[in-house]
Design brief:
about 25% strand, Yope Regulator, Chain: A, alpha+beta, five-stranded antiparallel sheet
Length: about 170
């Protein structure tokens, strides 16, 4: 929608008393970004602020399931990202692949910006945290998620490739 068409759309809504205020026109009353835990706008068609102040969502990146959790800690917006990269093969299954995965995990821990671990159940898990440094907005959450993923992308791709070897 262009600015001109938005202006015309907003003008039509206010000219016709049977049409409620448009969401677009409602935004003009807002000051600053819409924060997920502080938005108490009272605007029709917008969901209320999240009472817990915590936003969780799941997604896949390079066929790896991730969970993101955005929240406020000590009044600062923080994003925590956790990914499950599958199971580390046991030595008897594939000793060479296990050694290669261990080497990649060691390098990933040094250079990717994420913490990499092998759980007692032999699951490979990556986790990281980033201070969003701005308001807790959807844009900041997506930008923080992308930042963490792009730093670790080569390692995620290498781990999934090595783990998928026969």
């Amino acid at each position: 929608m262009t600015a001109t068409s938005a202006h015309i759309f907003a003008g039509r809504a206010s000219a016709d008393p049977t049409v409620g205020e448009s969401v677009l026109a409602s935004f003009s009353r807002l000051a600053g970004p819409l924060e997920i835990d502080r938005a108490d706008t009272g605007i029709a068609n917008l969901p209320p602020a999240r009472p817990s102040g915590v936003l969780r969502f799941r997604f896949c990146f390079r066929e790896v399931p991730f969970e993101a959790r955005a929240e406020r800690r000590q009044n600062r917006p923080v994003l925590v990202l956790t990914g499950d990269l599958g199971t580390l093969p046991f030595s008897i299954e594939s000793p060479a692949r296990r050694r290669r995965l261990r080497k990649v995990l060691a390098a990933a821990g040094l250079f990717s910006g994420l913490r990499w671990e092998v759980t007692p159940a032999q699951t490979i898990r990556a986790s990281g945290e980033i201070d969003l440094g701005t308001a807790l907005t959807p844009t900041a959450i997506i930008a923080g998620t992308a930042t963490l993923l792009l730093r670790s992308r080569p390692y995620i791709e290498l781990i999934t490739a090595v783990a998928g070897e026969p």
